[in-house]
## 1
Amino acid sequence: MTNATIESPTNSRIKELVKLRESPRRRRERGCFFVEGANDLLALVCAGRELIEFYFCPSMVERFGESSALEELREMGIPSCETSEIVHAKASYKSGAHGIIGVLKTWELGLDVFSVRNDGPLVVLDEVEKPGNLGAILRTVEAFGGAGVILSDPAVDFFNPNVVRSSRGLFGGMPVALGTKGDVREWLKNSARHIVGTSSRAQEIMGNKKFPAGTAFLFGSEKVGLGEFWQDPPDQWVKIGIQGQASSLNLNASVACFLYEYNRMT
């Protein structure tokens, strides 16, 4: 059922939406997060994630071609609320680029409940910093049939709106876990997976030989790569054979290169 239209940007429910959008602490306290855009919302719902409530602006829904998605959400019987354009723009992450905003329940990301979805490659990201990069990587891993993603001491909130947006909502169906460096390293050692460390300083160039099934690819932070802590676990160190003047690639581009090569050789 839809409540009366919210006309004021100072409405307490709109203020709460803004807090969820901006504050990792608020997301942790409430156990929910902010999602904007019909396609991303539906992708998350289709992945089995719980949509608590949603807000919509009729004129913007029509403008951005989200009418059918709105009807689909309404048919689910999820609580909803209509907003004016000025109110929707206030709550919006992109200042009114979509007509629907949803609030979804977060989920557990511990290594103790982590279960890979297939026998494909596993991606391990150490100290990932940029939410847009993380979201893009999750989308890339999904596209290449990856088994899942493990985040070691991440410097970004997994439920940041930019992670959601960059992943196009696909992060909801991707097995993801996070933990400390020590816990992640122990998990990898116990996993019996072949572990590949990626570094521009490695001697071996990607593509020279096939990676074993279920290989875990270990990637360092955008700034400094893999530090001394990770010198022990890898079974081999590999780099991308760059032909130009660039010393390295964007983290998402690097992940894509390795996963493409893994699939090409299997």
## 2
Amino acid sequence: MFKVRELNNDQINYINIGLMLVSCALAFILPFELFLFSYAVLGPLHYLTEIGWLHKKNYFTKGKYDFLALSFLCGLVFYFSFVQPAKSQTQVPNIIAFGLLLALIFVFVKDNLYRAALCVLALIGIVIAKTGNTYFVWIGVFLPTIIHVFVFTWAFMLYGVLKNKSLSGYLSVVALILIAFSFFIFKAPGLQYEVSKYVGSSYSLFSLLNKYLIDFFGLTTSTNDHTVFNTNAGFIVMRFIAFAYTYHYLNWFSKTSVIKWHLVPQKTLLITLALWLFSVALYIYDYNIGLKALYFLSFLHVFLEFPLNITSFQGIAKSLFSFKK
């Protein structure tokens, strides 16, 4: 195992503000490149270390094997994304929504009979619910991406701040919001920026997220690949995405001394590092191959983190409204 210098909460919070500012500056200058680097280099190490940490915490659920159900649903997402194409636009979003509902049940309900009944009701509700394009966008596109890396990260930070009640902590959660807004306020049209062919090709599988965010923020009346890679509207959204993902990963690593995800047997740590290096090598060889190879791991950490996200919002509500356990 390796030693990590112990930092107090104020030091961690100020470091995080610094990391936000660095991520922001890089996102303004090279948004596509920053995202591709962060996703390929920081992303896999984040997935591997967080899943290991969540396992030690029993995934913040009341059942010992709850994670198996969430992992199975993740496997279905992978299957219908790459093996057998989904039969409808809502098939994958339905699986994600069911995973989120299962996480709610796993966090709050311990009795197996009640759990089974609620799982059946959740499944029936999803099957009979009337869904459309808005459902696909918010559950299928936004939830496992920008909501996961930005909204849930902010909630996790706020939960910690409300427990510690430090000025530096409040400054960090406010800074995250202000910096996110800065990408839409300071449009920086004077920056000379051109997306290379390699970058465009490597990012193509992510472009759907950009298109829907451009539409959501109403930045243009027409959205296509040209809009994403060659217009100011596309660059605004890409800067926000690059910042959100980069800081999401850096926030995790900056809190190593608090979360202590590194306190694992040396063999586990070496395996983690070996898998990480192999993952990075795949991205270097061919970005799209790396993306597809790591797709399951990426989605797995999203599913397994659902109970933690729910726990964070529960903690925020209790702190704000003085709920008692």
## 3
Amino acid sequence: MSNAGLRPQGSSIAYSVSKAAGIHATKCLAVTLAPEISVNAVAPRPPVTRWHKDTCAEQVAKINDSAALRKEVKLEECAAMYVALLKNDNITGKTITVDSGVVI
């Protein structure tokens, strides 16, 4: 998932629409599979990984400035949210953003 499914932007309409469809599919599956199975999603802003090593510091600063918390998302923070959702049996049909407050 991605927070692009929660923010209307024109840069990549097909990508955003596909992510929004995934968010809706999460809700539909949660209803269909309940009460035996809970279904949730995590919609992160792209976390800092080795894949971003060629991203210039200016681009990273611009992205961070668009976030309410003014900081980047670490891969470990995304992983921690997946684990938290696995541990909680009373959450279903939710898409949780891990994006430093880009989508509020």
